[in-house]
Amino acid sequence: MSNMMSPPSDLILVGHILDAQGIKGLVKIKPYSKEPEALFSAPHVWLAKPPALADTARPWVIKTAKEHSGQILLGLEEVSDRDQALALKGSAVYVSRADFPKQDENSFYWVDLIGLPVINEQGQSLGQVVDLMDNGAQSILCVRAEGLKEDRLIPFIASVVKSVNQAPDDPERQIVVDWQLDW
């Protein structure tokens, strides 16, 4: 794959290369998500050595991908021995958002929820999603509102989240929740 290919604008950071694995050039990736499906469906990854940013990332064709003890082992074209794999150690791993597997309508990628406005059923603004976290039992929306010292932590569960409109070009993009301003 050519170095001349410029990175797409929709790159998502999905992990980093921890080390080489074995002698055949596999790289061991620490994924940043508990469900790193994007690494299994993408035709290639984009790698950049910190402090370089995504806009300097270089594409690498994925030959093989498998899960191993909570990490992902990738075989990359042009990487055939341990030394070549070691040279990539520390690289940030990006996948184009367009290469993520399609989600069904009731599941969401966290990256698609960041930045969405959150309102309650009364139409009151609760702020914007700035992060998500997982407490082991469920995902939690971290919602930041101007003037509040702390983020609101709202469980991302069906009984609380009434609707999610994440269509990029829709002016009604928002998350509607059953949540009060003073909670």
Automatic annotation (TrEMBL):
Localization, UniProt: Cytoplasm
A Gene Ontology molecular function term of the record: ribosome binding
Pfam families for this protein: PRC_RimM, RimM
Main location per the UniProt record: cytoplasm
Alphabetical GO biological process terms: ribosomal small subunit biogenesis; rRNA processing
Keyword annotations from UniProtKB, A to Z: Chaperone, Cytoplasm, Ribosome biogenesis, rRNA processing
Gene3D superfamilies (UniProt xref): PRC-barrel domain, RimM
Annotated RimM N-terminal domain residues: 14-98
Any single GO CC term annotated in Swiss-Prot or TrEMBL for this entry: ribosome
InterPro entries (UniProt xref): PRC_barrel-like_sf, PRC_RimM, RimM, RimM_N, RimM_N_sf, Transl_B-barrel_sf
Ribosome maturation factor RimM PRC barrel domain boundaries: 110-182
Family statement: Belongs to the RimM family.
Domain observations: The PRC barrel domain binds ribosomal protein uS19.
Subunit structure: Binds ribosomal protein uS19.
Task performed by this protein: An accessory protein needed during the final step in the assembly of 30S ribosomal subunit, possibly for assembly of the head region. Essential for efficient processing of 16S rRNA. May be needed both before and after RbfA during the maturation of 16S rRNA. It has affinity for free ribosomal 30S subunits but not for 70S ribosomes.
The protein's name: Ribosome maturation factor RimM
Gene name, Swiss-Prot/TrEMBL: rimM
